[in-house]
Amino acid sequence: MGTLIWIAVCVVVALASIRRPIFGIALTIVAYILMPYVAQTLITGDHGWHPASWLVLVWFGVTLLTRPQSIAAEIGRRPLIYLIVLVAVGGAFLVNAVSGRSGGISLMVDTMLAPALFFVQLGMFFAGNSKGLLSVRNVLLTMAVVEVVISAAGWINGAPLFWVEQYSTKYWFASFGGLRALGTMDDPLTLALFLSMCIPLIASVRKGLPQLALLVVMMTGILLSQSRTGLLIGSISVVYLLVRKGASLPIRMAIAVGSLIVVFAFFFGGLGNDVLSRLADDNGSSNARNFAWDLFSTIWRDYIFWGSGSGASYDVGSAGGLATSFESAILMYSIDFGILIAVLYFGVIAVVALRGLGRGHLPGAGLAALVGVITVQTFSSVGSPTAAGMLLWTVAALAAAKYVMPTDGPPEMILPAEPLELPVQNQTRLPQRTMSRTSALGLDRPIT
């Protein structure tokens, strides 16, 4: 019954989003981030898919019925990209169907199909709509700040603020559930992935003060998650913000000050002690990853063109002596669906990210997508039920879209040298522009 009610809600949202797509986009992103997969049954019951995945599927179906020409136009803008996505995602479902592992379909819908369809919806919204890119970027940055605030409160409290009962079903929660922040994500590494991808997007914020605040918040959240990969990637992103072409001196100074604040908190606050202890003793995490790669090196020939179905990597890893998973998305997908499909799937996102590094794209979006496609290879990420797939494809959509910096208003009028005197009765009042909150904060357009 809960699933039927939610589907009805999704239909209403989809219909409302025909005229205002940002409504459905924002609700999808917020739902993926605020509700971990471990808690999805509270809304959809035992019908496996995440509520936001239901929203994406229903919305895409409504769009297909009401605006098929828009979908066709979006596919026509980048046909090769969508052809590869179709082969990769469709091939994965074919492999899974032949393998007979029906239980893995829910995971594939949540981490592959729904995020890829969301990429299409975002592509339609971004077409000729540079301000739409800024709107989605603002949603991501806002949610990142919310996640860090929740994480900080949970770190002070010694336990997550939300979903504690659901998190307690995770095997790792008893050991470090109250020590490593996870916000409302499914695990600390997914939180670090999200924040690491958001840091490059700070480059598209116009003013120095918001950049300073966002940088400090993001890096603090990564420290709270105690993710070593997140800390490394985040630090590289900070260097990018400092050296990128077009950054003014005030912007560089703001980034430098923010970096000093984070370093001070790291070395002189209790925050850094936890991370340093993780660097000194990772509880065998590095050895486990090395062992996973060693194991894969002995079996990869069996999976060049075909896999064993969704979730098979867990069985293969367990049989090979792994205590957890292969801790790498591409290794897990190679075993599940075949190396060819895995390379196509992650390769197409990497190509989109690299193309997004060039001119004519939202500043920082290409690097954000590149950070995502690299970071997901360092833990189970899209090989397990997390928001990693949605985050990856959302940022990839930002990187894929063409971007032209919106102007603040109409072109300036060329006035005569002497003011023109008009009779009082013929004078008209010129419209006055007002500055929105996003304009005042510099979130309306990037710095050039």
Structure in a nutshell:
By secondary structure, the protein is mainly α. The chain has 22 helices and no strands. The protein has helices at 2-16, 21-34, 41-44, 51-66, 68-77, 79-99, 105-126, 130-157, 164-167, 173-176, 188-201, 208-225, 228-243, 249-268, 270-280, 285-299, 312-320, 329-337, 339-355, 365-375, 388-400, 437-441.
What brief labels describe this structure?
mainly alpha; 22 helices; 66% helix; 0% strand
Polypeptide structure, described:
Helix 12 (208-225) runs antiparallel to helix 13. The chain contains 22 helices and no strands. It has helices at 2-16, 21-34, 41-44, 51-66, 68-77, 79-99, 105-126, 130-157, 164-167, 173-176, 188-201, 208-225, 228-243, 249-268, 270-280, 285-299, 312-320, 329-337, 339-355, 365-375, 388-400, 437-441. With 448 residues, it is mainly α. It is globular, with a radius of gyration of 23 Å.
